[in-house]
Design brief:
Strand content: 25-35%
Radius of gyration: 22 Å
Low-confidence stretches: 367-371
Oligomer: single chain
Shape: elongated
Number of helices: 5
Structural class: alpha+beta
Length: 371
């Protein structure tokens, strides 16, 4: 396998040379690399981090709420104010259940709003200095009850029978729960309120208590849902009572505007991660970067012309590409790379498959010039 990986790396060098002009003039370039001996077909969109008009943003399901849509459709739904979309790659793994289909598997901060609590997988985010980071993120989100006791909560996912979940309008119109006790929460005068932000404590007042599930989530409110077993031992506060919502994480994501889950981490400090077990070749997607560039990468798979990559193959390729860090994203039929209006890869199912979110490169100066 080392032989054909070496051939790919040679093609990367050639492709990079051909893309130098585009990178220097526009700040971005797309290239397609093929090695028939693999066989493998790889698509790379490279972005200069120093370019003042280019930045990364994310999408969320359908029209800013949980759901699934193709990457192309998600891109079309971006507000014009964000700029002109240049490229996009599919994002995190996601829930496929009937009740919570489209819920990202792990943390997502969408334009500053925490819409999904961490689940412990590898994630990327931009710190306060604008530098990308990748590591596992864990939740310390909890409710502080009027009596001072604390209870952990999950955000916008299926509620555990013995725990509680907090729901915002990012999920949709209702909580989609069955049974339990649900508290309709509203803000207090002159206190910080929505949107929910990582690390920012909120004081909430109980507007109403419902002894059933599937409560409506009205704009400007949240719903705290207690599972049946928790409700049996935790007395719900009455209407008018106040409690605190503490959306903390480790590491802290306070002030973060963009975060997205994925995993596993493929490259750290310029070195490929190690993987044990059976290595399966399949379609893959990743976000990688170094000091100078971001890389949106997709490798086709499950096809005669491209078998895909295993995790070790993908990690080694990304190192050769120049990545100092890289995060694996959802793969298989979800693997999609969209560039300037066209899906450039060959999806393994013969068409684009809907996914929960995506990472998008936008050119901001176009929006500014259009005003």
């Amino acid at each position: 396998m080392r032989g054909w990986l070496g051939a790919i790396c040679w093609l990367v060098g050639a492709g990079a040379a051909l893309a130098d002009d585009a990178l220097s003039v526009r700040g971005y370039a797309y290239r397609h690399e093929v090695d028939p001996s693999g066989p493998v077909s790889i698509h790379v969109f490279q972005v200069a981090r120093s370019h003042p008009e280019l930045r990364l943003t994310t999408t969320l399901g359908t029209n800013g709420q949980f759901g699934v849509a193709t990457v192309a459709r998600q891109v079309r739904g971006l507000p014009n104010a964000l700029g002109r979309p240049l490229a996009a790659v599919n994002g995190d793994f996601f829930d496929t259940s009937e009740e919570y289909g489209g819920a990202p598997r792990d943390v997502q901060i969408f334009r500053g709003e925490l819409v999904r609590s961490p689940a412990g997988h590898s994630c990327f985010w931009f710190d306060s200095a604008g530098s990308p980071q990748v590591t596992n993120v864990n939740s310390q989100c909890h409710i502080l009850w009027p009596d001072g006791l604390a209870t952990p909560f999950d955000l916008n996912v299926a509620r555990p029978a013995e725990g509680c979940a907090l729901y915002t309008t990012a999920l949709g119109a209702t909580t989609r729960t069955v049974g339990g006790t649900e508290l309709i929460l509203e803000g207090l005068p002159n206190e910080v309120w929505l949107p929910l932000r990582a690390g920012v404590r909120l004081k909430a007042r109980v507007r109403a208590v419902r002894a059933e599930g599937n409560s409506p989530i009205a704009p400007g409110t949240m719903v705290l849902s207690l599972g049946p077993k928790l409700a049996a031992r935790q007395k719900a506060p009455s209407a008018g009572a106040t409690l605190e919502i503490i959306p903390d994480t480790v590491p802290s994501l306070t002030g973060v505007e963009t975060a997205l889950g994925g995993g596993p981490t493929l490259v750290r400090n310029g070195k490929a991660a190690s993987f044990s077990g059976i290595h399966v070749r399949t379609p893959r997607s990743a976000l990688g970067w170094n000091h100078d560039y971001f890389f949106l990468v997709e490798v086709d798979g499950r096809q005669r012309t491209s078998a895909g990559f295993s995790f070790p193959d993908f990690a080694n390729y990304l190192v050769k590409l120049g990545c100092e860090a890289a995060l694996n994203l959802d793969g298989g039929g979800s693997s999609t790379l969209w560039v300037e209006g066209t899906v450039v890869n060959s999806p393994s199912e013969g068409r684009e498959r809907a996914s929960a979110n995506s990472i998008v490169v936008v050119q901001t100066a176009v929006a500014a010039a259009a005003k």
